[in-house]
Specification:
alpha/beta
């Protein structure tokens, strides 16, 4: 089972948006190859991803949640091939170490904000010091980026300074908001409706194929 963790200790950077669409991307493969079984796990107190799953129409590619049995720890359903973990703001210490032990890859979303950049640098510094993170694939994704703004240029210069893969910049669009309100992702609607956004996701899809090779 591949475990993909979406993490940044800064709140409001787009972790849940990225996590649910990542799960949707993987689940769409399952519709095509029949061998991909996806779980979206939420370790945030707000349980936003779990609430989103409750909205998801049954006719769409299945995305499971944790198996919850009384008196037992939460665990992925049997047969899960990919687990996407949505993490809370303020993630650090033993909870971070525990999640890192299970993670094959970490996607770090951030926005074009000085506060996001500072929090992200501190988080990446922490990861570099943790033995549990060594060997884990780490990649960055710009969220709600408008390339016409000065802040987008500042974000790009910051990302260039980190020496880590920057997969893509996702634009600020209501597509994510409107689809999420119905338990859906970019991968559940015709490409013609979300063509620009699906193009921006292609580098993420290629990265997923590489880390699975």
């Amino acid at each position: 089972m591949r475990v993909l963790m979406v993490a940044n200790p800064k709140g409001g950077v787009g972790k849940t948006t990225l996590a649910i669409n990542l799960a949707g991307c993987l689940a769409s493969r399952g519709r095509e190859d029949g061998s991909t079984r996806v779980m979206l796990g939420d370790v945030d107190r707000q349980q936003s991803a779990r609430d989103w799953l409750a909205l998801r129409p049954r006719e769409l590619p299945r995305i499971a949640s944790w198996d919850l049995d009384p008196g037992k720890p939460a665990r992925p359903p049997k047969g899960t091939t990919h687990a996407v973990i949505d993490t809370p703001a303020g993630l650090h210490g033993d909870k971070l170490k525990g999640l890192l032990k299970r993670a094959d890859a970490i996607l770090v979303p951030l926005q074009a904000s000085v506060f996001d950049m500072r929090a992200t640098r501190a988080f990446l510094d922490d990861l570099a010091e943790l033995k549990a993170a060594r060997g884990t694939q780490i990649a960055l994704i710009g969220m709600r980026v408008d390339p016409r703004t000065h802040s987008a240029g500042d974000l790009q210069r910051f990302l260039d300074s980190l020496g880590l893969p920057v997969l893509t910049h996702l634009r600020d669009t209501q597509n994510y908001v409107q689809l999420a309100a119905h338990g859906m992702t970019l991968f559940d609607v015709p490409v013609a409706r979300v063509g620009k956004d699906r193009l921006q996701w292609q580098p993420i899809e290629r990265w997923l194929s590489l880390i699975e090779a």
